[in-house]
Amino acid sequence: MVERLNKCHQSRSDNNNESESSSSPAFESTSSFLTQFSNLKSSIESQLTHSHSVSSSDPSQLKPHFEQISTSISYLEKLVTENSYFLPSYDVRSSLKTIADLKHTLETLISQLLPKKKFSFKNKAATKKDTTNNNTVTPQEPKQPLPLNRDSLGFRNKSGELLVGDFRGSEVGKFTVSDLNSCEVRIIGCVSTLFIHRLKDSRVYVGPVMSSVLIEDVEGCVFAMASHQIRIHAATRSDFYLKVRSRPIIEDSNGVRFASYCLRYEGIKEDLRGAGLDAEIGNWGNVDDLKWLRAMQSPNWLILPENVRG
């Protein structure tokens, strides 16, 4: 089975070549996250409501007041990003909509109360200043990547290698696969949580993951994995063979294809049963694209044709 997947991946790579010639808490609980989100949202709304009072009593405090609100909104946005890999897609969308509304309200207040001041959210890129302007531009915080556990077990910083982890009969918590180029990863047995980051032209074949899989910044790869939740961010030209209890989530991705999980090894049925992943729900084909909220099919992903599957 692995050999067949490798051949399909190589065929797709050949075709593409021819055509081209952190610090927020991870709650791991939806109810805990929503409670924290609601409390922070209420606090920000209270600060926004207080803006007119600040303007009347001491206009000189408006700028730091708005900066504090901006920082709070940025933190709230970061909180959603870092925990969205285990959240239901509806809660992610609802949270992002709330953040967008808060930003709009803040921008409206700024335009009303500070019409001559230039103001932007701290997590946005700074506008390039004219070279004749001597004002120093404060470096802006880069976009926060999805969370990775850098202290966990894992495979890191390899090129052109076969990496095998056999965890049958073992208890493995978080496992990280990162910074691989042209590698093949085989994980046999169960792990609790899987983090995958910065892979190129690699293949990752994984037994059951007890909770969630988080994938970020991958290109030209093939994945076969089973998990309760799978979140994919910044993936291009990659195939995913999945068994997943919730709908897979993609964001900032394109050219990704999906098919049903097909990995086989001795004892996998028992591993899947032990992880609560033995039933075939069919969610592998019900993909939510967070950057495509229209009713029509997202152009960023498609179902892998059966005649080219491994």
Automatic annotation (TrEMBL):
One of its GO terms (molecular function) is tubulin binding. It is found in: Cytoplasm. Gene3D superfamilies: 2.160.20.70, Tubulin Binding Cofactor C, N-terminal domain. Residues 13-27 have a biased composition (Low complexity). GO terms for biological process: post-chaperonin tubulin folding pathway; tubulin complex assembly. Supercomplex made of cofactors A to E. Cofactors A and D function by capturing and stabilizing tubulin in a quasi-native conformation. Cofactor E binds to the cofactor D-tubulin complex; interaction with cofactor C then causes the release of tubulin polypeptides that are committed to the native state. Its main location: cytoplasm. InterPro entries: C-CAP_CF_C-like (IPR017901), CAP/MinC_C (IPR016098), CARP_motif (IPR006599), TBCC (IPR027684), TBCC_N (IPR031925), TBCC_N_sf (IPR038397), Tubulin-bd_cofactor_C_dom (IPR012945). GO terms for cellular component: cytoplasm. Residues 142-292 form the C-CAP/cofactor C-like domain. Keywords: Acetylation, Chaperone, Cytoplasm. It comes from Arachis hypogaea (Peanut). Belongs to the TBCC family. The keyword Zinc does not apply. This is C-CAP/cofactor C-like domain-containing protein. Residues 1-27, 125-151 are annotated as: Disordered. Coiled coil: none annotated.
